[in-house]
Amino acid sequence: MDELLRELIGDMSGADEILWVLLQGQGSEWLSDTCKSVLCQRDPYFSRWPESSHVKVLELLNEFAKYRLIRNAVIHGVWYPYDPFGEEGRLPRPWGAVDDGSPVYYCMRSRHRKIDEAREISVGDVELLAEKIAGVQRGLASEFRAMTRCSSPRTMEPFQRWGF
What is the pTM of this model? Predict the structure, then answer.
């Protein structure tokens, strides 16, 4: 997702190719917020892209923000095969307590100046998370293709490498 966001920011901003120096290594939250800012600053009056495209992109980025919190716990958390936390204060499984037949683990993520976050998550939950993030990626790539066709109809089909 981060790579797609970097490409979208570069395309929307119209900046020189050297922009990648600033974008490489930035986190998902920063990239998502920057994408929103560039969209709004570059086209505040919807003269470059339709308002419906603005709305759709912002909806997709907000949807990704929900998944990013879970993604970050999965990637950066400490995993346990048993529940070291107890029920109190533990976040529920992201999609509800559905028995998907996959093993359930307990994950804790520590954040600077924030209370540690403990959650229950199954292998199936992680697979569903990956599918949901991929769906947001497909939606963003599709919307930006449409936006590029709107603003530069003679341009080659953008974002081809994303394959969806």
Answer: 0.82
